[in-house]
Amino acid sequence: MNRKNWQTYIERQHPDYGKTVLPVHFAADMVVVIPCYNEPGLFTTLHSLLEAMPPKIRIATVIVFNSSVRSTREGILQNRKSFEEARAFAATHNTKEQYFLPLLFEELPRKHAGVGLARKIGMNLAVQHFFSTGNEQGVIVSLDADCTISVNFLTSIYQAFLRNNRLNATVHNFFHRVELQNPSLERAVRQYEDYLRYFRAMLQFVGFPWYHHTIGSAFAVKADAYVRVGGMGRQQGGEDFYFLQKVFALGGIAELHNVWVYPLARFSDRVPFGTGPALQKILNEPDDQLKAYSPDAFKALKQLFDRKDAFFGKEQAEVEPMLVTLHPALQQFLHANAFLNDIADCNANSASLAAFQKRFFQHFNAFMIIKYLNFVHPDPFPLVKITPSHVQY
User: Fold this and answer.
1) What is the pLDDT of residues 316-328, one digit of tens each?
2) Which residues make Cβ contacts (< 8 Å) with residue 297, sequence separation at least 6?
3) Is the pTM of this model over 0.70?
4) pLDDT tens readout for residues 257-296
5) How far apart, in whole angstroms, are the C-alpha atoms of residue 335 and residue 337?
6) Can you tell me the distance from the alpha carbon of 153 to that of 172, in angstroms, rounded to the nearest whole number?
7) How far is CA 310 from CA 38, 304, 314, 355, 360, in A?
8) Where are the domains of the chain?
9) Which one is the CATH code of 3-286: 3.40.50.2300, 3.40.50.720, 3.90.550.10, 3.40.718.10?
């Protein structure tokens, strides 16, 4: 633990969100953070956590009930009801090895209120706790209030970090629960899961080093790595994607394929993108079929990534002729986004090929890949229907 960096990070955070702290005497090994807004099913999640509690590992669970100045009265009242029930739940179930801490935040500012800020509040509290207890190996587990988990969830995450002190984050498997036997919802969510796995597989195929899933309820991060990347953002949606891209760039990422999260599948418009809006979009399609980026677009991108090492140490005039055999649409995209300037920056700031490669993907990151994919779809690459042959893990 670089205590100076941790202390600097803690001091920069909003003081009003850190008045409640986890007790130092508990000295958690891991802290599970659950943002919660208008979630009557929260206690399904908490009981699932109880069933997964391992012996001799101290687990704290922070539930961040949050609402904004724009929240509905129904949502606010549900939060208050659940908060009081969570306090009673904690009083019943807190022991020397498990500690539940419900927190209630209301009238959060319109500009920042949402799931990102709620995660940030809980995760910052975890950092403060690990700092106070001197636990440089502390782990923050991200979960949502509509999830159940596999019984090995907490144990396997803890052991993964225990076995490898260079591990910065773990990414977990997922399978959405569908309740009330809703065939349309079932079909939509399985398509969405296939799309997520397809996109991950394609990122790995093209040689992108940070290809892992970015799902808010399916990752854990070492507290030190959390501090090093500046903590969770306050985005009102997609906060998991933005945060994890920074963490992935640190390296030391493990995919735990036998650790499962089971989020509840449902339609939702709480955030501009994510599972809920994606499911609604699928149902709005004329043929009830989710479309995905073409494999051919990824193949074209792979050609560029495969030859990136040849750009190391080259002047712009030498790099430009090396691009002419790429797909014309990719060439247009590179020209429109000043790719040669990016290569010049990589070479100007890289003393080795390894440094060049890392800087290359800082420029051509996940945001740039999505920008490219949107640039070349639907012309010249048409969107495609996902088939089982597309999907890998």
Assistant:
1) 999 999 999 999 9
2) 372, 373, 376, 377, 381
3) yes
4) 999 999 999 766 554 456 666 666 666 665 667 889 999 9
5) 5
6) 9
7) 53, 10, 8, 14, 12
8) 3-286, 295-376
9) 3.90.550.10
